[in-house]
């Protein structure tokens, strides 16, 4: 297999740290006025499904600072592989599709999705 810088970095970290032990998927949305209760309800349902499909834990965060007015849903995994397996699994779940349909019907703006890997 041809080596790339990313794979070399992963190899070094895996050897020194014994593997990555946290990977977070983070979705940020800007709420429309009056939609917080709906966002919380849908996020609770999404959290249960993500945990059913392999997330270690999920949280909904009320953001301050430059993202004031936004909420961030995070799902935490052991590593990128666990996230990938969970993402593949949850996408095939009709209950998740129903939750996403409800989420997409709520007025507001999707801001970003980030994937974060723990360094230390």
Walk me through this protein's architecture.
With 120 residues, the chain is an alpha+beta fold. It has a single domain (20-117), classed as Alpha-Beta Plaits (2-Layer Sandwich), CATH 3.30.70. It is built from four helices and four strands. It has helices at 5-17, 36-52, 80-91, 94-105; strands at residues 23-31, 57-62, 70-77, 108-117. The chain has a four-stranded antiparallel beta sheet with strand order 2-3-1-4. Strand 2 (57-62) and strand 3 form a beta hairpin. Helix 2 runs antiparallel to helix 4 (94-105). The longest helix is centred in the middle third of the chain and has 17 residues, at 36-52. The model is unreliable at 1-9 (pLDDT under 50). This is NIPSNAP domain-containing protein.
Q: What is the topology?
A:
Elements: H1 5-17, E1 23-31, H2 36-52, E2 57-62, E3 70-77, H3 80-91, H4 94-105, E4 108-117
Antiparallel strand pairs: 1-3, 1-4, 2-3
Organism: marine metagenome
Protein name: NIPSNAP domain-containing protein
Compact overview of the structure:
The protein is an alpha+beta fold.
